[in-house]
Design a protein that fits this description.
Layout (H helix, E strand, L loop, with lengths): L4 H25 L6 H5 L1 E6 L4 E6 L3 H7 L1 E2 L15 E2 L9 H12 L15 H15 E2 L6 H30 L4
Parallel strand pairs: 3-4
Antiparallel strand pairs: 1-2, 3-5
Helix pairs in contact: 1-6, 4-5
Amino acid sequence: MLSREETNKVLTKFTKYVVSQSRANLTRKNKNVKGKLYDSIKGESTTSKNSIGLYFEMEDYGAYQDSGVKGKSSGNSLSTFKQGGFRFGTGTGKKGGLTEGINQWVKDRRFQFKDNESGRFLSYEQTAFIITRSIYQKGIEATRFFSKPFEVGFERLPEELVEAYALDVEKLLKETTFKK
C-alpha cells in the first residue's frame, strides 16, 4: 500500500503557510490586534487511500473582509477586487449581523465619537450606528488577507506535490520489490 507520508508533509506545509500568512496579514492590517477572526483561522490536510483533502475554516465574516462587500448606495465595493460578489441590501445575510458585530467592536475597544457641537462623547450605540451606516452605504474594502496567501502557496503546490508523490511511490517500490 502506498504511503502518503511525503505527500502529507507537503500538504501540511501548505496549510500551515496559508494559516500563518493569513494571520500575519490580519495583524499587519489591524496594527497587531489579534481577535476572534485571527484565532478562528485553521487549516487541515488529510490523505487517504483514494483521496487528498484540504480544509480551511474561519469566522463567517472573514469571507466578507477577504473579498470585500459592495455598498448599498455606492454600487461597488471600496476596492477593485470583486471576486466574492457580496453586496449589502440583498436580504440574504443575517438580519442585524453587521450592527451586532460593530456594536461589539465599539464596546470592546471603548471607542466613541465626539459630538462637534457639545464636545461630549456619543454613546457606544450612537457611535456604532454611524459606523454601521457608513459601512452599509459604502461597502467594505477587500483585504485579500486569506486569498492572497492561498494563491501564492497554491502556485508552488503542484510542483512540490508531484515531487512528494513521486517520493512516496519510490518508497513503496523499494519496500515491495524483492532484492536478489
